[in-house]
Amino acid sequence: MKQLNVALIGYNFMGKAHSFALDNVSTFFKDSPQPVKKVIVGRTEHLVKQAAADFGWEEYATDWREVVLREDIHVVDIATPTRFHMEIALEAAKAGKHIFCEKPLAMNADEARQMLDAAERAGVVHMLGHNYRRVPAIVLAKQLIEEGKLGDIHHFRGVYLQDWLLDPSYPASWKLDKKIAGSGPHGDLNAHLIDLARYLVGEVDEVVGMDKTFTTKRPRFQVNEELTSNLTAKGDAQQMEDVTVDDTTAFLAKFKGGAVGTFEASRVAGGRKNHERIEINGSKGSLVFNFEAMNELEFWSNEDDLRVQGFRKILVTEGVHPYINAWWPPGHLIGYENTFVNQFADFFRAIETGQKLYPNFHDGWLNNKVLDAVSRSVETRTWQSVDEV
Predict the structure, then answer these.
(1) Residue 332's closest CA among 348, 346, 321, 345?
(2) Which of 132, 175, 334, 363: disulfide with 338, CB 3.0–4.6 Å?
(3) How far apart are CA 250 and CA 263, in angstroms?
(4) What is the pLDDT of residue 238?
(5) What angle do CA 110, 111, 112 make, to 5 degrees?
């Protein structure tokens, strides 16, 4: 199979996750082309040099523009803050590179549309990094819904809760700067819920939302001398900076198919580390998924005998379940990192076969439209149409 040389732009949390996945794609998915970790790119030379050594990249660089133009690069993997997604993607498409981009696709729907149009004009494969679609339990949920096991969908209920910003002394990192991140947990976490809702239930028609920033000033972020995650950043308490994004955003939604939905994202929900939970209720059945028990799916059916009717817990590790044949024997669990392997396997297979790939930049554009509509609703305190230009 053809080898594909990858340039990864970004090297912190997502850089580590992507590097792990690239290492393991061809080990577990024999029908996937072999990705080569050619060059990793970052602005701070000593940190990206360290990342290259830690994550096993052949080279490192500090100028992404030069790297994107290299003839030996086939794939550009964008794992930077949201503000830089569009610029890099447009240049990568112009250079004819296949593009993988982390979510949310862009700062807003207008940028996302430009990225989609550029990738389509260039004829390159483009994929959006919503790794939760590659959780076997989520794909099983999709199959059950498509088979009619839930009947007509009535409710989608989603929460994505974290608590790493509960401490007011946590510093004002880039994730708290609207000019760089675009938003707080709305774009960071609600984007995941929106993607799962679109994948499982369908398109969103109208929304009404609210948000809140509880800690409006935080210590200035200190640049660390070694690689770190956002969760372990340090701040300078002598210098305070404004927080310009939300700490929490919640919204109601009406789906085009007739269902209703509730969405809540927070980074100040004490005791919740990565609590992504969805529940879907239909006329015949219900499903519950909690990422903190990601190998399990709960299913209830009103077609069961009343004597045994109730939520059943399905351990999604049998060979009949999606993706599991590539991994371990039944009953052996997979983890967060494996979802990235699954999605990159699909990405590289699509490059080789030309098959349609989801979620792609079109999905990212539609996701950004929902995010934008919620933001408009927060400002106007009114219901907003997702399709409004």
Answers:
(1) 321
(2) 334
(3) 5
(4) 73
(5) 90
pLDDT tens readout for residues 233-277: 666 667 899 999 999 999 999 999 999 999 999 999 999 999 999
Cα angle 327-332-334, degrees, rounded to a multiple of 5: 60
Helix (H) or strand (E) holding 246: none
Return d(Cα 108, Cα 370) in angstroms, integer. 10
Residue 333 carries which DSSP code? -
> Judging by DSSP bridges, how do beta strands 248-255 and 204-212 pair with one another?
antiparallel
**Contact status, residue 309 vs residue 300, Cβ threshold 8 Å:** yes
CA distances for 360 relative to 142, 189, 227, 313, 331, angstroms: 18, 18, 30, 31, 32
The pair phi, psi for residue 276, each rounded to 5°, is -105, 110
Sign of torsion, CA 188 191 193 195? negative
Q: pTM of the prediction?
A: 0.95
Cα separation, 281 vs 283, in Å, equals 7
